[in-house]
Amino acid sequence: MKRLIFIGGAMGVGKTATARALQNRLQPAAML
């Protein structure tokens, strides 16, 4: 099943870190 996950929030709250962690757990995955 294909998923599209949006991560939003203010600067400095860890959006990129969260996206990278999800990318590692949800293989195959891509971060755009």
UniProtKB/TrEMBL annotation:
Name of this chain's protein: Nucleotide kinase
One MF term in the entry's GO annotations: kinase activity
InterPro entries per UniProt: P-loop_NTPase
Keywords: Kinase, Transferase
SUPFAM superfamilies: P-loop containing nucleoside triphosphate hydrolases (SSF52540)
Domain of life: Bacteria
